[in-house]
Write the structure tokens for this entry.
Amino acid sequence: MGRMIVISHLQKVDGATTLLEVETLTVAAGEITAVTGLTGIHKTTFLDLLTGKIQPTAGTVRLAGIDPWQDRAAFARLVGVLTAENGLYPRLSARQNLTFYCDLYGLPHGRADAMLQLVGLQDQAKVPVEKLAPGLARRLAMGRALLHQPQVLLLVEPFAECDLASTSLLERLIRVTAAEGTAVLLISRDLAGLRPLCQTVVEMENGRVAQQYRPEERESQVNLPFKIPARLEDKVVLVNPADIVYVAAEEGRTVLCTPDGRVPTHLTLNEVEQRLARSGFFRAHRSYLVNVQHISEVIAYTRNSYTLILHNGGGDDGRGRIEIPLSKTAARDLREMLGY
């Protein structure tokens, strides 16, 4: 199959800071690749390079054979984009949103009706977007991204604010779209829900590729017996995963936190996450993995602010109570996983 997404020797530098560096990344027609681990300015930079909003310092980006920085018109015709925000007009109805884009693409309005049916919103056609449930609005945003039948599809946090029904529908739609020959690139903070969809996973750390693999390659590895190596002065200790309360990325290093103390490991947070994939650990935040067995409370301070309370791990307060930040997306995933 032809390579529809080709990133080569890509680099973006701001002053003395390298924001992004990707030696090579390719996605063929019909393939689904997930990029995870990008946060903050690194994620913004990657998206801006892919969509042609900024020019690379070095290297190239090619989507369906075109340079998104140089040829904006071709990019609009050939690439579909779903950003973390839906990008819809809140006061227009679901159908009006799609017919507006049909006019931009020179498509008949019948395409809007067909897309509403595809994303299961035909009964919501006349409802203003501002009155749609979050999951239904996400479906509509996906419909807008697919409206012009793009050759390349860029999906950022595709299941954001989706309920189970909307997530299931979007998963099926992504698979069908890829099966029809579209190259799909999924970009998300973590792999929750994405691993079964993709043929390739690219894990990033601080704007650089940490590792790239096919999910099936890891299935055999995660069943092997193992311990996590950690360095203590003049010796290496092997930590049993059951003894780890949480793992944190702090100032460029990864720390294993146990009831007996904190020990550093040479492994990256993503590498530790892979080793702990079948041991009941959960990515609560971009910088934290937690042992689910040690979670005692989930506190919602606001609609978008959450904290996990862990116990039986000592902690700086001396009372065995540890507070770990919980991202909004992770809060939703944890709720679905534990069923509360």
Remarks:
- Confidence is low (pLDDT under 50) at residues 220-225, 313-318.
